[in-house]
Malate dehydrogenase (Salipiger pallidus), 320 residues
Amino acid sequence: MARPKIALIGAGQIGGTLAHLAALKELGDVVLFDIAEGTPQGKALDIAESGPSEGFDATLKGTTDYADIAGADVCIVTAGVPRKPGMSRDDLLGINLKVMKAVGEGIRDNAPDAFVICITNPLDAMVWALQKFSGLPTNKVCGMAGVLDSARFRHFLATEFNVSMKDVTAFVLGGHGDTMVPCVRYSTVAGVPLPDLVEMGWTTQDKLDAIVQRTRDGGAEIVGLLKTGSAFYAPATSAIEMAEAYLKDQKRVLPAAAFCDGDLGVSDMYVGVPTVIGAGGIEKIMNIKLNKNEQEMFDTSVKAVQGLVEACKGIDETLA
Ligand SMILES: NC(=O)C1=CN([C@@H]2O[C@H](COP(=O)(O)OP(=O)(O)OC[C@H]3O[C@@H](n4cnc5c(N)ncnc54)[C@H](O)[C@@H]3O)[C@@H](O)[C@H]2O)C=CC1
Ligand SMILES: O=C([O-])CC(=O)C(=O)O
């Protein structure tokens, strides 16, 4: 049977890392697409030349021609620009919206059956626009942010508790911005919720609050350190986890920016919610119950995303 085909739209920092990871894991044959002539070809050849040492047979092709993504099973979109220190993700909206239009049309015309994972920021508004521009079914278009934000939360928690990352679960919901909602009650160490761990004296409420805030600021922390761009290793790993769940029909329960149609009280927009990802794409949204405080934070986050969606409609009238 032919290997699955994975198209990576954008061959920058995340795109290159995605290609490397997809090849190392032999998830499928990789096509790297970018508008910068030479970049996708150079990265594809460089990674392919690591194949003999790593022992993978997956093929890699770099291209500036959308025709080469034809028939892709998965498309992961990182095309656009990242932020620099002093910028918010929302500052990227105008420039990246134009990129989403070109990418959406490219996917629509060449890979209409793909499962599409958008990474480009500001994430929730960009995935909303990408779905509109591509016209693909909403269950086949989603955004990656929650897996990354939850991984950051898990990393900070595991370090604080001095336990294995494997035993820490976490859910970060809402929009991928300053208003994201790390769900303390639904995050656990081996099933024991974080509030219980505070009661048990494993940490203090102040320390937990600081970890929640560090999680919210996780992207900005890396931007401040790198200075030339934003995080790319963990974002790529997170999207690969989602792509693998789809390709292997794993039915993984992962937070993703998914199209909500009344889910968690949200209608007609994309926002971070717990989902089940399998061969059907976003197969289910878990309509978890939020308490009053969580609901308030989630509503604030949804409102922030709604504002960005309205801004998109103001810029491109075909979206209105
Ligand atoms: N959702 C999330 O959790 C995260 C999102 N991001 C976002 O991901 C995006 C990509 O980040 P990086 O890979 O670090 O940026 P990068 O600048 O390294 O790569 C972006 C690539 O997109 C290409 N590009 C620009 N316009 C294009 C078009 N019309 N068609 C195809 N390719 C095009 C550029 O030539 C460049 O190679 C940024 O918007 C960033 O903010 C970054 C980290 C996490
Ligand atoms: O912070 C940024 O600009 C990139 C991003 O979304 C993240 O790393 O979470």
The first strand starts at residue 5 and ends at 9. The first helix runs from residue 13 to 24.
